[in-house]
Amino acid sequence: MLAVLLSSAVVLDSDDRVLSSSAAAREFGLVQNDRLVVGELLALARQVRREGMPREGEIDIMTSRFGGRATSFAVRVAPLGPAVGDGGLILVLAEDQTESRRVDEVRRDFVANISHELKTPVGALALLAETVEEAADDPDAVLRFAGRMRQEASRLTDLVQDLIMLSRIQAAEPVPDPRTVQLDAVVAEAIDRCRMRASARGIVLEVAGERGICILGDEDLLVTALRNLLENAIAYSPDKTRVEVTTQAADSWMAEVSVTDQGIGIPERDRERIFERFYRVDPARSRATGGTGLGLAIVKHVTAAHGGNVTVWSKEGRGSTFTLRLPLRPRRSYSVSGSDHAQARGAREAVR
Length: 352
Ligand code: ADP
Hints:
Layout: E1 8-12, E2 18-21, H1 23-27, E3 31-32, E4 35-36, H2 39-51, E5 55-62, E6 70-80, E7 89-96, H3 98-134, H4 139-171, E8 179-182, H5 183-200, E9 204-209, E10 214-217, H6 219-235, E11 242-249, E12 254-260, H7 268-271, H8 283-288, H9 295-305, E13 309-315, E14 319-327, H10 338-351
Parallel strand pairs: 9-11
Antiparallel strand pairs: 1-2, 1-7, 3-4, 5-6, 6-7, 8-10, 11-12, 12-14, 13-14
The structure holds adenosine-5'-diphosphate (ADP).
Adenosine-5'-diphosphate binds next to helix 6 and helix 9.
């Protein structure tokens, strides 16, 4: 039983000798040479042996695993079997809290970020409404401010839509009902939705590469991901430049879809972080182009939900290339079935 436990587990005999321990307990350095080396855990085990009652608590332990850094463990200690008193065996379970704390922190940060992001357009709307009231007898001003109110309202709508999209994808990892998707159709649809935006700025959208590539997935999600990349390529490029979408089979497992622009590029120090929710290299520029700061987070989750990943190449002042790598639909079968899905999963595991 201990061998399959992911948490740190130790069984002590009546002389405090370790009879058995899980791999995690040894890796954390809680057990050395058949001894439980953490004084607090040992004291707790002795108390439980004396009282015959289980106990639990939270203990900070200096573990060898993180270079002697204190790690917080949720600990449960219980007598094993019917023997109560000095002769009984004791089970010590210790659960590393680092990951669950990190998740809590990320969740707290996210809520704080959302509140901040919502506050900005809502605050602007309130101010604009006040200004409209004051300018009631100046029709030109009313029109101007009403236009700005519409802008802020649409910013708010974009933000809420992106938030809904993000939570929808996170709930659907991996894609629950994958179907055959033609990459050509995804590219055509995404380009169609960005055409106006591009032509307004004199930016040419081009398609290149192999055609006829099929993957298994959710077409709407893939169009959203590619559209986000295209919108960024347009937003962060000067007028009259070129944005190119290329599709190709990278090998016999993976398809690649790249979006290349001739834009401002992304400084190296920011490249790791741009996929985080609400991270922007230049907040003012993102705001000016109507960005929600969630576009690339959505791209990352969509590709992960398909068993793929997204990478970026960039050079400041020259441009950027974002590449989606997605598992190809298995070639053997041409019908979409449960076994197709299983094969795709197999392919994904092999690629990982
Ligand atoms: P936003 O809504 O701000 O565009 P994203 O999540 O889509 O949010 O992107 C995060 C940040 O990454 C952007 O604010 C921008 O600074 C940077 N970025 C994304 N795509 C590009 C690109 N093609 N060229 C330059 N910078 C980019």
